[in-house]
Each structure stands twice: as structure tokens, then as C-alpha cells.
């Protein structure tokens, strides 16, 4: 979600659309829209071009939070990016949380994000749901995300063994498929990981351990990186009777994002 519609992604989309930022717009901009000043990214103002902090910089205030947030809070009570969402009840209980709102400063990234969201809302408002879905598909979902590079297996052989045990498969066994130059300075080994008679993954490396680890990683990616058939999203069943939406199963175990 963050990779497709996060702040940095939406800022990049805004630049691709040719949207420019002006410090002082001219008369073509409605003064009613100029209600927020531009703030520099981060919390440490510096002299431009020098990287040195200004002497008059105020101490950064500690961000006040109404409670300690865990993974469950970030998934249920916060927004879809896990960022804290403060309600009026929180602000009523702790008025100090409102400190800083009078500055009304926004960064260029936040302004770019709001611009893309405003365009998306305008398309939905004036063009309808189908136009909004098509717009989202062409400008957001069309971006290529290499999910395979996001995986980080610290102990792939152990993870693969636990996966096979959980699914009721036979324990994985590594076997040499081919090799060349064993006695040379640059040998190459090709190892396959098998569960019974089924090969789960294949990997090549300069040593047997390297090839075995790569084969285990390939097996894990082959299990997790798949595209379900006939995926139905909630917006596909809106307004239709007799066609309830069913969520797609990602995995039977724990998924850490």
C-alpha cells in the first residue's frame, strides 16, 4: 500500500504530471486557497546550501501521543499507513495535542500528496466510480513494484523447513543438480531443494552452501509470490445483490509487513 500510494509515490506522480510549486503564486490563484505556508521537510531548519543549523532554531517539541501504539493499533485504529489518527475525543482529553496547529505549515511533499488526492476525488465526484477506478488503475496500479526484492530471509533454510512442516509436506532436502569447475578457482554449483519428488526451488552459487541458500530462497519466493486467480475487490461488488465479497487468503501463517 505504501509503495503504491504512499507520500513519496504520490509526490513522484505529482511531478510526473508536471505540477510545479511556487513560493508566491500570481493572480491566477484564488487567495482563499493560500491558507498554509510552506515548511521545510524535517524538523531541523538549516541555512540553505550550508547544512548548518540556524542559531535561532527552537528546540524540537516532543511529539505527544495519547497512548502507546502497538501493531494492532496501527492496523485497526490508525490510518491505512499505520500513522496515528487523532480524534476529537483525544484532543478534548489532552488539549496540548493541539499545539502547533496554529502554524498551519505544510511541506512540499504533503502539498503534492493532497493535490493527487484532490484530483482523485474530483474524478470520482464528476466522473463516477467507474472513471475513478480506471484513473486509479492507469496512474497508480500501473506502476511496477518489484515485490521480490522486498523479501529479506535471514534463515531461509529454517523458514522453508517450518513452512513444509506447517503445510504437511515432507522435509526439504537439498540435492546437487549439476556442477562445473569444482577444482578451479570459480566453481559453479546448481542445487535443488526437494520435498519428496517435487522440486521446490533451484539456485546456483560458487559454493554448495550458497547454492543451497539460494535454492531455499527461490522456494520461499515461489510459495509467497503468486497472483490469485479471479481476484474480486470490494469495489467490484458495490451496488450488486447476491454477490458478496470474499477476501483473498494471503497465507495461513503470520504475515509481517
Automatic annotation (TrEMBL):
SUPFAM superfamilies: dsRNA-binding domain-like, RNase III domain-like. Coiled coil: none annotated. One of its GO terms (cellular component) is mitochondrion. CDD domains: DSRM_MRPL3_like. GO terms for molecular function: double-stranded RNA binding; ribonuclease III activity; structural constituent of ribosome. Belongs to the ribonuclease III family. Mitochondrion-specific ribosomal protein mL44 subfamily. This is Large ribosomal subunit protein mL44. It comes from Lasallia pustulata.
Amino acid at each position: 500500500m505504501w509503495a503504491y500510494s504512499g507520500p513519496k509515490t504520490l509526490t513522484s506522480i505529482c511531478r510526473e504530471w508536471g505540477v510545479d510549486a511556487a513560493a508566491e503564486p500570481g493572480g491566477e490563484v484564488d487567495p482563499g486557497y493560500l491558507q498554509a505556508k510552506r515548511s521545510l521537510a524535517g524538523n531541523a531548519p538549516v541555512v540553505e546550501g550550508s547544512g548548518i543549523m540556524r542559531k535561532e532554531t527552537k528546540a524540537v517539541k516532543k511529539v505527544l501521543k495519547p497512548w502507546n501504539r502497538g501493531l494492532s493499533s496501527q492496523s485497526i485504529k490508525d490510518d491505512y499507513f499505520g500513522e496515528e489518527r487523532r480524534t476529537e475525543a483525544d484532543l478534548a482529553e489532552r488539549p496540548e495535542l493541539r499545539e502547533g496547529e496554529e502554524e498551519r505549515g505544510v511541506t512540499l511533499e504533503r502539498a503534492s500528496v493532497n493535490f493527487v488526492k484532490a484530483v482523485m476525488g474530483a474524478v470520482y465526484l464528476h466522473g463516477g466510480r467507474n472513471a475513478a477506478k480506471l484513473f486509479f488503475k492507469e496512474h497508480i496500479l500501473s506502476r511496477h513494484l518489484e515485490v521480490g526484492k522486498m523479501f529479506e530471509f535471514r534463515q531461509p533454510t529454517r523458514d522453508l523447513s517450518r513452512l513444509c512442516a506447517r503445510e504437511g509436506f515432507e522435509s526439504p532436502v537439498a540435492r546437487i543438480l549439476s556442477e562445473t569447475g569444482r577444482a578451479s578457482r570459480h566453481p559453479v554449483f546448481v542445487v535443488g531443494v526437494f520435498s519428496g519428488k517435487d522440486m521446490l526451488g533451484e539456485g546456483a552459487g560458487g559454493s554448495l552452501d550458497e547454492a543451497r541458500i539460494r535454492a531455499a530462497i527461490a522456494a520461499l519466493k515461489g510459495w509467497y509470490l503468486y497472483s490469485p486467480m479471479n481476484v474480486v475487490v470490494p469495489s467490484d461488488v458495490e451496488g450488486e445483490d447476491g454477490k458478496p465479497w470474499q477476501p483473498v487468503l494471503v497465507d495461513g501463517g503470520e504475515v509481517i509487513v
